[in-house]
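Final report, results section. Input specification for complex C-07:
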Amino acid sequence: MSFLQSLTDRERVFDFLIPASSPVDVRHGPILYLEDVTVSFDGFKAINDLNLTIDDGELRCIIGPNGAGKTTMMDIITGKTRPDRGSVWFGSRHNLLAMNEPDIASLGIGRKFQKPTVFEALTVFENLELAMAADKRILPTLTARMTGETRDRIEEVLVTIGLTELRQRPAGILSHGQKQWLEIGMLLMQRPRLLLVDEPVAGMTEQEMERTAELLTGLAGKGKQSVVVVEHDMGFVRSIARTVTVLHQGSVLAEGSMDQVSNDPKVVEVYLGADPDEEAA
Amino acid sequence: MHSSTSWLARPFRERATQLFLGILLASLATVTLLNLALPAGHPLHVSTYTVTLLGKYLSYALLAVAVDLVWGYLGILSLGHGAFFALGGYAMGMYLMRQIGDRGTYGDPVLPDFMVFLDWDSLPWYWLGFDMAWFAFLMVLLAPGLLALVFGFLAFRSRVTGVYLSIITQALTFALMLAFFRNEMGFGGNNGLTDFKELLGFDLRSDATRLGLFLATGIALALGYVLCRAIVASKLGRVSVATRDAEARTRFLGYRVERFQLFIFVVSAMLAGVAGALYVPQVGIINPSEFSPIFSIEIVLWVALGGRATLYGAVIGAILVNYAKTVFTGVMPDAWLFALGGLFVLVTVLLPKGIAGLLAYRVNPQRSARKPDDPSTSPREVSA
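Structure output:
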């Protein structure tokens, strides 16, 4: 790489010379940028000309009735699903459509799935250790040693997610809510720039929900992470949201503060016209 | 900077590993002493026949450890590890055949007897080099290792796991068995390779060589155990357990799961090859029956009976089942398979964690109620 660079003009760094793992470029504001994204499954358009911009450090909630394309959107951002057309950029340098899942993960996009999947046979501490940003090739993993720095980082995240006491217990014994927090902790270990959180409070008790709201709002911020939350629970969304995006039939129906959005006649119609349970929730 | 080999030293600091190595080395020393120091008529004398039998058990134990590494810690139920064992055995057998020289029945200085019998006039190319011990010993590692590398690369890259992988490993060993049965393959057909004379210049029929082979097998088991423990106790071992329990999740953390699977599969195949190479000079023959699918399934039974994902359980299982097999086939040859089947059913119902689970319960009832390494609490168990 340095050889190639020496051949080129010293002042100018060509894009193709920048390693794919280089930090995300957010000088222009947005950390995530989706434009005209369309994806269809067997003719059904799950995502239809979707445009979405997330700013650096933002906490964004995405709501929408079932089948609105929320999970598919997450799949596209993380490289699990390839769109038929459109473009997806991470900062202004990284084209996510040209990358595979592990590369996108190591670039700094972390995703929490709907159903918590932690490694039940491993301890809480070990779960966090595996999730940590590190050289994940075979030999470095085989010879890896626990350094003081690593331990401090894990302890720090244990405090954030409130599981310090349970650090040496197998993750299999955790309650549902605790598993969700451990998952979020595992995301934090990767030092992500963008967190995608899918239904974090499904099945949680009232106290667990409050604790999760504190956790998520504490995470987002300039110079920290940007957080995208997909959630059904309106009460929860109201308690954390600054900006809300409503998805409907694969595209953005409305965007704005919770009050603006919930008074938008189109949104009211979609929610009233759809499943009445959705509206109640 | 820390040294890059400290992961290999880690097992020596574990109490359980120290205990295992202590018991193993003490057993080796005791058997040696009882064999050498006591006269043949003494009631505690261990005959050379028994020493060789124990050596055979130890080579099976090493094979079981190799299987436990991939099944217990990686969740890959290989029903074809007999193939890697047999390939290691054939590599050793080919060296031993070349050592016979002109002492064979037909007295040909180069060609083994079966080739003379088949009217071949020269060695096939793949027999070249096996007159040199270093080359043959290298092949003991490389032949199973390369097969595992190619097979594993194709299987893991296509994300074939679970039952499907188990079935194709069965097919692999079955196909190799059929191939090795053919005389044209040049491995002695259904008779295999036998009538060995010496190994590294030591007469294979002498008592001292047999005791030496027993000790070498015991030390190979100790080293193989330490290597597996080192892998399991490393971060790579935790990635392996993570893969076993939630493969997609592990991939999403940024680990290239298929490469980890391939690495552990190849290490395991090489260990199985070493076990086969130590087995052959002690039993004096290698033939295609070692490739039989039933044998590979039997190995898995040893591990299941001993206790999966413990390594020491695999050793206990291999030795106990094979001891039982020796006794049973001596008393009632026809009843052995029924006994094995019955044992398997009983252990599965009464001791789901195997003998190792029972031992752990005796030592510490509370902690063993939920062991971190325990695969039976993982959702993958059903599919694996």
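The interface with chain B takes residues 78, 101-102, 105-106, 111, 117-123, 126, 129-131, 136-138, 141-145, 170, 172-173, 186, 190 of chain A (CB under 8 Å). Chain A has one domain: 57-79+107-280. This concludes the modelling results for the funded period.
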